Amino acid sequence: MGTPDNLRAATPADVMSSADTDIPHDENVHGVEFTPVPRRSVMSSASASPLTLMAVHAHPDDESTSTGGILAHYALRGVRTIVVTCTDGDLGDGPGGVKPGGDGHDPREVAAIRQGELRRACEHLGVSDLELLDYHDSGMAQWGLQQRENAFCSVPVEHAANRIAQLIERYQPQVVVTYDPHSTRHPDHVQAARVTTYAVDAGHVVAKLYYKANGSVYWQRLYRALAEVGIQWSAPSGEMLRMLESVDQRITTTVDVSQVVDRKRAALHAHASQIDSSLAGKLPASQFAYAFSTESYIRARGLTAASAPEGDLFSGLGHGLQLR
Ligand SMILES: [Zn+2]
Fold first, then answer.
1. Residue 7: per-residue pLDDT
2. pTM listed for this prediction
3. Is residue 235 part of a domain?
4. Parallel, antiparallel, or unpaired for β 175-179 and 129-135?
5. Is residue 313 part of a domain?
6. Which of 91, 115, 74 lies closest to 259, judged by CA?
7. How many C-beta neighbours within 10 Å does residue 3 have?
8. What is the count of structural domains for the chain?
9. Are 148 and 188 in contact (CB under 8 A)?
10. Is residue 7 part of a domain?
11. How many angstroms is it from 229 CA to the middle of ligand 1?
12. Rounded distance from Cα 189 to ligand 1 centre (Å)
């Protein structure tokens, strides 16, 4: 998130992040040793190219909060995983939780800190390659910073999409994942979804494009997990309920990531500078596992004959992934 999609106060939208301070950097969340994910490529029987998953995100920490489960899940199965982070997250929280524009908030320093955290998070998730596009964080719409030079949401879609297209050409991912442009509100998330969709549509290379779907089950589990640790939310608004209903109707794919949920939590906590304003960061391991052991997606484009609902982003590609 960087600049959280919503959830700063009591409105949900981009759960996991909102960050301020320093929860101590937790390399080893609740005593589990995280060993590097072994590298062994699984080949697609159709193309004889390595199975590859690319996740396109707006800010450092979104890879963990949004798609950390599938990144770790597929890395564990030998799939090559690529994270593309579009902005430097320089409007995230500064040291001590200081907000952009506050005393001691140096955007360049924030960006440098967050890049280091992003790299550590990717290690937890077994990410094969990290690509940084280095646009600037646009901030939330009401911050009025979207017109500053190189702010991601103000970059022409075709320009940014061309850079994504070049990465698709280089890595040849069969599956690409980004945000759902219809249910995310952060300008950078919307822009990431637009440019990714544009690049996929222009290239005709990617077999399946997915949008991350945070539907009613996601929020119900999160509300319940937070309530167990004493964090109460007011009931969702009518607008929120209509949005959730729309998301629920479009979900095609739910992946069980329970086996790697500890890795996802460790990756989230690697973003130590942002963790204080993260609601998900306040969940102990057991509640975190309850809330985040599945990830749901909307199949937005598909060139395979895979049916829906499905439990595997690579279904229809003839791979037969097995956990080693
Ligand atoms: Zn974000």
1. 32
2. 0.87
3. yes
4. unpaired
5. no
6. 74
7. 31
8. 1
9. no
10. no
11. 25
12. 6
Mean pLDDT of 264-271: 98
Asked whether the CA dihedral 185, 186, 191, 192 is positive or negative, the reply is negative
CATH number of the CATH domain containing 109: 3.40.50.10320
**Is residue 9 very low, low, confident or very high in pLDDT (cuts 50, 70, 90)?**
very low
Closest CA to 214 of 246, 186, 239, 237: 246
Helix (H) or strand (E) holding 123: helix 107-125
Q: Which of 86, 66, 71, 90 is nearest to 14 (CA)?
A: 66
Ligand 1 center to 67 CA (angstroms): 12
Q: Is residue 129 part of a domain?
A: yes
Longest dimension (CA), the chain: 56
Domain hosting 138: range is: 29-300
Cα 163 to averaged position of ligand 1 atoms, centre (Å): 19
Reference 89, options 45, 32, 133, 31; nearest CA is: 133
Residue 233 has phi, psi (to 5 degrees) of: -115, 150
Q: Mean pLDDT lowest for which of 98-102, 199-203, 242-246, 286-290?
A: 98-102
Predicted confidence at residue 70, as pLDDT, reads 98
How does DSSP assign 154-204, residue by residue? GS-HHHHHHHHHHHHHHH--SEEEEE-TTT---HHHHHHHHHHHHHHHHH-
C-alpha of residue 71 to centroid of ligand 1, in Å: 17
- Show the tokens assigned to 127: 């990410």
